[in-house]
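Duplicate of #3305? Posting structure anyway:
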């Protein structure tokens, strides 16, 4: 089974990404013996994700603080068009992961491109001593 993991680029190659992939694999191993998680961090912008999404059996989109950034919800929308099963993984920070739920709950806020940019800037805001940046990955921050 192939699972496409759609998540914000600022979570690429972080502890959060790695832990989410582990949880996704464990969640679906109960159902299927062989699992391949398709991680866009491995191919970035070099490859158009449409074919990867089309080939997937399931897609998991990462929601941060009940928000889906533009890229993630557009990929979830595309997956629904191709009748790929959709899931959302709720994340607050690297220590607060889950739950993984089927479908895209109505309470999730879908951000526009500009809102996504602003939200990403807030999440990644510079100073390591700020509350938000205290959550990020290996560098003392949020993810």
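Output from current build:
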């Amino acid at each position: 089974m192939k699972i496409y993991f759609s998540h914000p680029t600022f979570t690429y190659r972080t502890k959060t990404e790695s832990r989410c992939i582990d949880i996704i694999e464990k969640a679906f191993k109960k159902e299927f013996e062989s699992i391949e998680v398709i991680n866009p961090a491995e191919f970035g912008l070099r490859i158009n994700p449409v074919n990867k999404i089309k080939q997937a059996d399931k897609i998991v989109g990462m929601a941060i603080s009940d928000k889906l950034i533009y890229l993630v919800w557009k990929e979830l929308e595309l997956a629904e068009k191709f009748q790929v099963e959709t899931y959302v993984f709720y994340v607050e920070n690297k220590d607060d992961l889950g739950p993984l739920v089927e479908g895209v709950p109505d309470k999730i806020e879908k951000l526009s491109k500009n809102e996504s940019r602003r939200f990403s800037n807030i999440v990644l805001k510079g100073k390591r001593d700020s509350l938000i940046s205290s959550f990020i990955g290996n560098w003392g921050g949020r993810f």
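Confirmed duplicate; merging threads. The two ends are 27 Å apart (CA to CA). The helical segments are 15-29, 49-55, 70-81, 113-124.
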